């Protein structure tokens, strides 16, 4: 059983929802990212989404774009991200880690090389924003062969036929993007989120996480009632951006603890 599946089963048995934070690898530097990963676990996170910095994102708003820019200014590469997971696994063999990013860095390294290294260092899932189901065949085959989950995005504009396509390939969980637009934008329509999650669950057999637009305890609590997982990215990356080296870990821990408390 994969770490992701095991985690969701444990949470379900205890009537709890998953908290999945997103941070960008190398923001503000790789050493701090490693500390933040442990801090996220200590403050109640269940799965960590680790962003692969990329220069030309299409789904990320200004906050996460700036995080990628800071990471790239520090020369953070995909190989560095994989090494980061390897270091994390030296002290944590339980927490699932999902790599989230774009196709270009993966294809530059080579799909087979990337997946082999990801399996070696202990990556549990991969989400490639710009690999739609019909273009992800080679990656999905490689991930399946290496027992790594394939995670896909669904959006408010996703047609039912596309949901069915994703359902046939998705393992681990699916990530419902609750807003039209980029990360960090807009305000959630919880009634619409509820309807869309119900629609998705009619097709997919894996848990459904909801992200984009979750910025506070009240919204996180409301979304937790509608889904299997709360994904929080831009607001957390803002916390990192606005902190200095002395208080960054403490600030992140405090914020995640407040979200954990709210969804429980």
What does this structure look like?
The chain is of the alpha/beta class and 264 residues long. The chain has a single domain, classed as Alpha-Beta Barrel (TIM Barrel). The chain contains 12 helices and 9 strands. The protein has helices at residues 3-13, 30-42, 62-73, 78-89, 103-109, 111-121, 137-145, 160-169, 190-201, 217-226, 234-242, 248-263, and strands spanning 18-24, 48-51, 97-101, 125-128, 149-150, 152-154, 174-177, 208-211, 229-232. A 9-stranded parallel sheet has the order 5-4-3-2-1-9-8-7-6. The longest helix has 16 residues, at 248-263. The radius of gyration is 17 Å and the shape is globular. The two termini are 25 Å apart. Mean pLDDT is 94; it is low at 181-185.
Sum this structure up briefly:
The protein has helices spanning 3-13, 30-42, 62-73, 78-89, 103-109, 111-121, 137-145, 160-169, 190-201, 217-226, 234-242, 248-263, and strands spanning 18-24, 48-51, 97-101, 125-128, 149-150, 152-154, 174-177, 208-211, 229-232. With 264 residues, the chain is an alpha/beta fold.
